[in-house]
């Protein structure tokens, strides 16, 4: 089995580390520059959310290489407070930290698939995939 | 990491050449405002040609820099935003409506001169 590239998010600078590694993976897979920027931006948003709201967590990457399609799967997991009201956080402009509130709805638009599993008090897992076109 | 701020007549010129982490972005905001205060600059060009990612945090810092500089009497123009970055920003839902932009540093300076010197 392939070892998954993984970035631990513990300090602010790890956000940059995560998006740089993600961009590298995206490049290797053959994504164009615009998709590379989309993926790197999405990772940056997810990693920052971990840093801001959960304190620590990790972001890891899985390359999907099937006969019919190739893609990059980004998984962001933490054992932070979780999200109480999912529909609320998916609204543009909703933020509990004075941010633009663009992060999560933005990631959903930047990537092709987007899934959140979260439990209040347990943590959050976000899985997003981008397909190579 | 500190971002160098150059002075040219009444203008300040900045070319961002690093992958901006949050701390460097905030530091830059502070440094620029101090420099505007000290130099009495009336115009600022921030060149983003080498920046290949702007996420919501950096966008917020840049937007704030523009508003704050404006309050201090200095007009800011952002230049050289890469196509991929522009597309990503819009998809993120960030429109930066009140921000002046130009194609490159030279055009940015021309724009400032037209606006400030009539
Ligand atoms: N991993 C997480 N754990 C707990 N809460 C989270 C997590 N990620 C996001 N949230 C909650 O969802 C809200 C919306 O997140 P989103 O990223 O969309 O906006 P933001 O981080 O507040 O602002 P921006 O990302 O634009 O700077 C956050 O304010 C926070 O309350
Ligand atoms: Mg966020």
UniProtKB/TrEMBL annotation, chain A:
Among its keywords, does the record have Magnesium?
Answer: no
Instruction: Give residue ranges for domain Histidine kinase/HSP90-like ATPase.
Output: 35-127
Q: Which CDD domains match?
A: HATPase_RsbT-like
For this UniProt entry, the molecular function terms from Gene Ontology, in alphabetical order, are: kinase activity
Assigned keywords, A-Z: Kinase, Transferase
Matching Pfam families, A to Z?
Answer: HATPase_c
Its recorded name reads: Serine/threonine-protein kinase RsbT
The organism encoding this protein is: Halolactibacillus alkaliphilus
UniProtKB/TrEMBL annotation, chain B:
Matches recorded under Pfam families: STAS
Q: Known PROSITE patterns for this protein?
A: STAS (PS50801)
In terms of SUPFAM superfamilies, this protein maps to: SpoIIaa-like
Report the domain of life of the source organism.
Answer: Bacteria
User: STAS domain: from which residue to which, for each copy?
Assistant: 1-112
- What Gene3D superfamilies does this protein's entry cite? STAS domain
Signal peptide (from-to): none
Q: What InterPro entries would the database entry show?
A: Bact_StressResp_Reg, STAS_dom, STAS_dom_sf
**Can you say what this protein is called?**
RsbT antagonist protein RsbS
């Amino acid at each position: 089995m392939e070892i998954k590239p993984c970035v631990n998010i513990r300090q602010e600078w790890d956000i940059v580390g995560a998006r740089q590694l993600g961009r590298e993976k995206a490049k290797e897979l053959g994504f164009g520059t615009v998709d590379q920027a989309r993926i790197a931006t999405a990772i940056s948003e997810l990693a920052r959310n971990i840093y801001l709201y959960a304190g620590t967590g990790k972001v890891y990457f899985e390359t999907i290489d099937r006969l019919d399609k190739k893609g990059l799967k980004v998984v962001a997991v933490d054992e932070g407070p979780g999200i109480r009201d999912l529909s609320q956080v998916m609204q543009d402009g909703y933020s509990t930290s004075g941010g633009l509130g663009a992060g999560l709805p933005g990631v959903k638009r930047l990537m092709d698939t987007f899934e959140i599993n979260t439990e209040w008090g347990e943590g959050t897992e976000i899985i997003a995939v981008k397909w190579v076109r | 990491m500190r971002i160098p701020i150059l002075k040219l007549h009444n203008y300040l010129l900045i070319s961002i050449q690093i992958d901006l982490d949050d701390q460097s972005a905030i530091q830059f905001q502070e440094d620029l405002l101090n420099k505007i205060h000290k130099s009495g600059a009336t115009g600022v060009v921030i060149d983003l040609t080498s920046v290949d990612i702007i996420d919501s945090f950096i966008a917020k810092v840049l937007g704030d820099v523009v508003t704050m500089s404006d309050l201090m009497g200095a007009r800011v123009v952002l230049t050289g935003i890469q196509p991929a970055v522009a597309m990503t920003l819009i998809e993120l839902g960030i429109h930066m409506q009140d921000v002046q932009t130009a194609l490159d540093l030279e055009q940015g300076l021309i724009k400032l001169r037209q606006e400030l010197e009539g």
